Amino acid sequence: MIKEKQIIPLTYDFMFKALFGNEKNIKILTQFLSDYFNMDYEYLEGKIKILNSELIKNNKKDKKKSVDVIIELNEKEIINLEMNANRNYPGLIERNTAYICKIFSEQFITDDEYNKTKKCIQINFNNFSVTKNKRKKVIYKLYDSKGKNLLTENLEIHHIDIDYINKMCYNETIKEKLNIWVKILKATNLEEIEKRSYYMGEIGKSLVNEVERLSNDEHIIGLYDGELHERKVRASILSFERQKAKEEGFNEGIKKGIEEGLEQGIDEGIKQGIKQGIKQGIEQGMIKGINQGINQEKGEIAKNMISNNLDINLISNITGLSVESIKELAKHQKPKFDKTEKITIISRQSDS
Question: pTM surpassing 0.90?
Fold first, then answer.
């Protein structure tokens, strides 16, 4: 329910359509277009015609498509007004662009002469910016890639960031009428509209009365309540999906972290294993090398002893080599003198 003095904002498309799409409010629409295009009200008066907002279906399979408001101005221009303030979804810009292109092309169905094409202008009221840098209004035309040569003057798309204007633009002088209209569109009570529409005179009073009437219309209230309910449902679903995605992302992150941790641990383990293996290999190699060196030296000593016809048991006791090893060495070793020669070992005792 709407409280006293409160209104349903004109940013809701059904309110926007009911105000600007009604022939009874043609003076209010004329005032808006006069302010927007900076044209004299008297020049536009009587030259504005509200057209059917349903687009022509090309075949039976086409879905029913309708825009918010379509206006013919002075039989030379077609203006499409689109209120997007309470809807923003992927593809919205593309959809609205397709609408104005369809409006542009529909002229050729009833008129065979291309040179009589009317200029088509689409004015979008958005609660978002279409550029990276926030701007009040952006106008798009068909230029070449260098932005120098205009292909046609008969197609324009305007995007107005009403959220940015409402928050950042405080100048509401008579020269900044776009700012004033945005504040009117975003208003939530009658006082705001009364304060900002004073310069319109009797048209301003009609605007206040019509917005108040629409805000108390049972059909409009039903649409408003339905819209609020739908937005709450969408918000709940979005919140649930975000929480679900957050939890799934968290669990996936833990799983991935464990996998990466294991992988890193295995890699680190391999590196440490190789490092430790090299170290131990070097140590064992050194020991083995030393032992081999010692054994080789013992073998050389044993060979010399064999060459000097020393007793095998004596050689074994001195070198520590086994008798079998010495016998094997003896097979390949020639003695330095005949075995029949006697060897006298003189033991000299040291003086005490």
Answer: no
